[in-house]
Amino acid sequence: KNRDLDYMMKSVRGLIDTNGEIWSACKEHTCFVPGKFTPGSCVKMKRICFKEASVLKKSNQLTISSQKTLYVHDFGTPPLIPPCLSSLFLLDPQSEGEVFPCYNAYLRKAGLLNDGVLVSFLTQLQEHLEDVQIFVGRIETWLSEPASTTQFLNELFGSGVALIEDVDASMCKPGGKVSNGATCIHCGKPPTSHIIQNWSDEYRCQGINKIGLFYVPAPTTLLTSNTALVRGQMDVTFDLCTDDGKEKLKTFVAFLKLYG
Fold first, then answer.
1. What does 44-62 look like in DSSP terms, one character per residue?
2. C-alpha 248: how far from its chain's center?
3. Cα–Cα distance between 74 and 54 in angstroms, integer?
4. What secondary structure does DSSP assign to 114-130, as a single string?
5. What's the pLDDT score for residue 31?
6. Is the CB of residue 110 less than 8 Å from the CB of residue 89?
7. pTM for the full model?
8. Handedness of CA 77, 79, 82, 88 (dihedral sign)
9. What pLDDT is stored for residue 101 in this prediction?
10. Which long-range contacts (C-beta less than 8 Å, at least 24 apart) are formed by 131-136?
11. Res 245: pLDDT
12. Which residues of the chain have pLDDT under 50?
């Protein structure tokens, strides 16, 4: 019986550690949460990725470029600790900005339970932590997707041509100086979803004490070529979010290098 308990305890601790490692790598991409995260609130994440590659030709000058886009995705509500567990012990207050409670502190309290109740407790907690792992795993996968596109572009056009960096204020502009298609790096919403100060260019995020800053990326030039191969002007876009779009761009570049 003690062996079963030891095994269950190790399994639960392993899930806590794994989930913590995954979330630690992801949480810097969380959209701003004012104060302490309220259980039942949605988790919104942000990422930068190359969405499209554009081919533009004027006269004999052909340019292939891409523009990084800031995306925000709502992953919904993270799994809540079941009432059958939370009724046994109170959860410690979450630290400011933290989405998940301190599960290790919660597990330490379980040492007060007798073996019969502890087995049931650990079984329920393990199931909850497995749900949490699925939740943070979805976030991890979503955040890692731009890396494959960046790798594709660097393999096609040369190492270091395409880079994804963290967004900072130097890449952003206040709401009065951007189009409505821009996205705020704090709350993940467009300018029209902000409170506009009539006397200034400040667009304030609703519900949080932040001035809206909107990501305005500069186009990244991937390839410039002087060619008469393609007659007239050209304006074509390739979708970098699909394998089909990437394959078509790869074929176009190969054709250009071979005959251009």
1. EEEEEEEEEEEEEEETTEE
2. 27
3. 28
4. -HHHHHHHHHHHHHHHH
5. 81
6. yes
7. 0.81
8. negative
9. 86
10. 131/79, 132/15, 132/19, 132/78, 132/79, 132/100, 133/15, 133/18, 133/19, 133/22, 135/75, 135/78, 135/79, 136/19, 136/22, 136/23, 136/26
11. 95
12. none
Amino acid at 83: P
Task: Look at residue 177 and give its three-state secondary structure.
Answer: helix
Lookup result for tokens 């041509």: 161
Note whether 222 and 161 are within 8 A (CB).
Answer: yes
Q: Which among 7, 25, 4 has a CA at the least distance from the CA of 15?
A: 7
Query: How many other β-carbons are positioned within 10 Å of the β-carbon of residue 206?
Result: 12
Looking at residue 143, its pLDDT comes to 92
Say if strands 61-74 and 172-174 run parallel, antiparallel, or are unpaired. unpaired
**CA 250/CA 65 separation, integer angstroms:** 14
Pair of tokens at residue 260: 């251009």
Residue 187 CB contacts under 8 Å (≥ 6 apart), including other chains: 31, 32, 193, 194, 205, 206, 207, 208, 210, 212
Joined tokens for residue 200: 């200034």
Place of tokens 């630690």: 24
Pull the structure tokens for residue 13: 């601790």
Per-residue pLDDT tens digits for 163-214 = 777 666 777 887 767 776 688 888 878 888 888 776 666 788 877 777 888 8
Query: Tokens 């052909």 sit at which residue?
Result: 62
* Token reading at 156: 């096609």
